Write a sequence for this structure.
């Protein structure tokens, strides 16, 4: 019984995290490290990111040339540093409003939307909701990222089409039908 549990736990962990940086892949969704994509069968850092140990760190944009860490700190704040003569944000930080700020992942405490980060391509899909970083409405968590929630799209597309006569009503007669239209949509959603 214990062996079965360990096998299931290991399998769940490996599918949830995906391939690491420089790991094998067949598509972008298999790359588990933030800000990576699949290129020629290997997970690599996206444009405007560079390798730093086992993950990708974000370059300042536009790119800022540097010779020493102090050049970057003066521009990006205390969380900037110099890597390969370009200013980047330290690990677990991202570039926002010309500064490197601490990234807050899904389910972490936050004060503002800009603190929440689940990858560069996820910025418009995550928010700080009630003090916790979460996927915005219409998105769901998948491998520490927010992806479109097909169920939301399916609910909207499955709503019954209203007769064209309702759409052509004059404003004064529509006001009497709004509660009925709301009821139809609400009833259909249940």
């Amino acid at each position: 019984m214990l062996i079965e549990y360990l096998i299931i736990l290991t399998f769940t962990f490996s599918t949830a995290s995906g391939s690491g940086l420089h790991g094998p892949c067949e598509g972008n969704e298999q790359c588990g490290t933030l800000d990576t994509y699949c290129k020629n069968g290997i997970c690599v850092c996206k444009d405007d990111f560079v390798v730093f140990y086992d993950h990708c760190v974000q370059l300042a944009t536009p790119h800022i040339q540097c010779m020493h860490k102090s050049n970057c700190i003066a521009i990006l704040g205390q969380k900037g540093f110099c890597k390969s003569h370009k200013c980047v944000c330290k690990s677990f930080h991202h570039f926002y409003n010309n500064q490197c700020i601490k990234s807050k992942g899904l389910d972490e405490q936050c004060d503002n939307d800009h603190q929440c980060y689940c990858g560069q391509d996820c910025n418009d899909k995550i928010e700080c909701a009630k003090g916790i970083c979460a996927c915005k409405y219409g998105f769901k968590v998948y491998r520490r990222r927010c992806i479109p929630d097909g169920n939301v799209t399916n609910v909207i597309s499955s709503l019954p089409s209203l007769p064209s006569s309702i759409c052509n009503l004059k404003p004064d007669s529509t006001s009497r039908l709004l509660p009925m239209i709301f009821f139809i949509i609400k009833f259909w959603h249940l």
